Amino acid sequence: MKEEALINNNQIKIQGVVVGELKFSHEVYGENFFNFDVEIPRLSDSKDILPVTISERLIEKERLQIGTVVLVEGQIRSYNSYNNIEKRNRLILTIFAREIEIAEEELSNLNPNEVFLNGFLCKKPIYRTTPFGREISDILIAVNRAYNKSDYIPCIAWGRNARFTSNLAIGDNIRLLGRMQSRAYQKKLETADVLEKVAYEVSISKIDVSKKESSDEYDSENNYSENSYSENVSDVSPDIQEEYI
Questions:
Q1: Nearest-CA neighbor of 197 among 143, 146, 241?
Q2: What is the DSSP code (8-state) at residue 61?
Q3: So what's the pLDDT on residue 129?
Q4: CA–CA separation, 26 vs 32, rounded Å?
Q5: From the CA atom positions of the chain, what is the Rg in Å?
Q6: What CATH superfamily is the domain 114-230?
Q7: DSSP 6
Q8: Of 101, 64, 75, whose CA–CA distance to 9 is shortest?
Q9: Is the pLDDT of residue 42 over 50?
Q10: pLDDT tens, 198-207?
Q11: Are 172 and 209 in contact (CB under 8 A)?
Q12: pTM attached to this predicted model
């Protein structure tokens, strides 16, 4: 029961088109895992390209061809990876697939990118406004999973959601709905070289602070209190190139 509750704390469902070749990622106890990219449309003409990690036991590798439409359900996972160019660890995000389905038809009209997270704020929110006057708040939450591990997931809020998160305290238990997005940006190195990078984060559409002490007690209906805030940010494109992770 506890493991099931931990799984429910971190849920993502995406529907999109495979746009990257299947590449070997790692092996655990004889089980091979592979990575591939999925392109997911937004409401506008823009698209997100998100990384997916999948076990060889879930699907035949030959079926994941470029151009294939897939439906993936799983969790957002994080891990640290040392970057030789920047000489420091980087937080890497991926969608860890628990279920996958090949769609026989084109993309449906259903929401192709849904995220639910129930975790704990582990850094003070960074609140600011863009040069165009938009309010932004960056938060980092820790979501517990099995075997005493946690995933650290960067999230971004806009407008009144941003103002709401700016008042949160480290350790607050928060629940949120949103979508996972990709964002390309440039980073200038000390050598004056410019590094092209991609950041992944969860764009928040609804957020609530839980008054319960344990995420295990969170009700499975994902009900939100009257103190929750929401804003339609399903198609926001950041207008600044700052680093969020």
A1: 241
A2: G
A3: 93
A4: 6
A5: 18
A6: Nucleic acid-binding proteins (2.40.50.140)
A7: H
A8: 75
A9: yes
A10: 899 999 999 9
A11: yes
A12: 0.81
